[in-house]
Amino acid sequence: MPRILIDGYNLGLEKGTGVATYARNLSYEIGNLGHQIDVLYGNRAGMTRDEFLREIYFFDTGVDERGRLLKIFDQAQQAVHGPLTFRAKEIPVTGRVITRTFESRLPRFDRLFNSTDLFSRARSAFNLWGRPSKIRLPEKPDLAHWTYPIPLHVKGRPNLYTLHDLVPLRLPYSTLDHKRRYLKLLKRLDKSAAHFVTVSENSKRDLVDLVGIAPERITNTYQSVDIPAKYRDKSEDQVAREVEGLTGFDYKGYFLFWGSLEPKKNIGRIIEAYLSSQVDTPLVIVGAQAWKADQELKLLGDTGSFYGGLERRRGARKRVIQMPYASFPLLVSLIRGAKGALFPSLYEGFGLPVLEAMLLGTPVICSNTSSLPEVAGDAALVVDPYDTQAITQAIRAMDADADLRAQHVAAGEKQAAKFTPEIYRDRLKTVYDRFL
Prior knowledge:
With 436 residues, the chain is of the alpha/beta class.
């Protein structure tokens, strides 16, 4: 069977991102296509010769003490020799280390590999020399599919790169990326990549118009969400107990936002619009604080509390709570238990939360910009994300009108059917068949 390598760049064992969800779903569909799956991580685990210790170190989320020495060694090597060839070793997963804690975060895999601090080391090498580095594995895969623009490649094999969006170029004020290096990396990958994959027609247009990649070198596969039945099909009573116990709010009695708390997610306007709406339905915000998060959350004030074992922040007369993290099973229940999902993001390559909400029967308020109209179709209440008053009016309408909510739930179910794993798998197969 063909062996396909994907990277674990965003597949951290502790917290997830939209790209992590993409990578996990990609791994499932690669397996469903009948291919073997290698996953390459770059965490700080030491690469000892002892296989049992390698397994232990990989699942130890602590920082390896050799990280600083490796960085100094790499800088010295790069100054003399240029971009490096990194080596990865297989991580045996034997069951001797209990890994059930990570089962909702791990991708599907046949073999795991790790190269210590790989992705940051490769990025440093690219910043110095302007060329991607090579990665050497014990056995070459038949194809490497990088889930992010990473300055790495497998020599002598087709290297595909997923480019999700061009947010650093379209909304430069919303990210910390070094914009010149980011654009330089995309142009450099255009010279060496076998092909590019993206997740919406909007992102494809951006890649053609802003980077100059030829349209025939880009395939839009869209995305899918495959939520395990054991989380998706819990009884309403069980979901109600979970969400009420964690938030203190009733089942179908709160609005929900989930995602990283960063400028492009428009959290500041969401909170302002919500408070201006004066609805009695509370708001739950789930997400880790990222760059400028404090500025986005300033209307909540500084009050905080511990509840149910999770630190959470309460504000605005206790109508809003912010939790930094929810495990995937709990997040599914929170989405199912919400009265409505708020996702008026400024810019998205795809917008997985919109699809997740529709799939789980929760009505959505989202933006009329970037890729979101492609994903939501006519199944969401769409607004101008820069117009706080429009978001306010949408919240009031969604809160007050049960028929409107039911209409969007029904439409969302039909719209979500356009992004099934089977459809996504067929699009992916079309790409892979060109190179395998």
